[in-house]
From TrEMBL:
HAMAP family documented for this protein: UPF0434
Organism name: Ferrovum myxofaciens
Example of a GO cellular component annotation carried by this entry: cytosol
Pfam family, one: Trm112p
Family under the similarity heading: Belongs to the UPF0434 family.
Name of the featured protein: UPF0434 protein FEMY_12890
Gene3D superfamilies in UniProt: 2.20.25.10
InterPro entries: Trm112-like
Length: 59
C-alpha cells in the first residue's frame, strides 16, 4: 500500500489511526478492535466488511 494513503486513512467509526498488517492484508483499528480488509491493494473501509478481532488477538 502507498504510505501516503496510509497517512490519511482513519477508521470510519472512531476516526482513529489504523495499523497496517501487510501479512494479513488488513488495516486494524485498535480502539474499535476491527480489521478492515485490503483487496488488490485497495482498503475496504466499510464496517460490514471488517473483521472483529478475537479477544486474545493483539491489535
Amino acid at each position: 500500500m502507498d504510505s501516503r494513503l496510509l497517512e490519511i486513512l482513519v477508521c470510519p467509526l472512531c476516526k482513529g489511526p489504523l495499523l497496517h498488517r501487510p501479512s494479513r492484508h488488513e488495516l486494524v483499528c485498535s480502539p474499535c478492535r476491527l480489521a478492515y480488509p485490503v483487496r488488490d491493494g485497495i482498503p475496504v473501509m466499510m464496517e460490514t466488511e471488517a473483521r472483529r478481532l478475537a479477544e486474545d488477538e493483539n491489535p
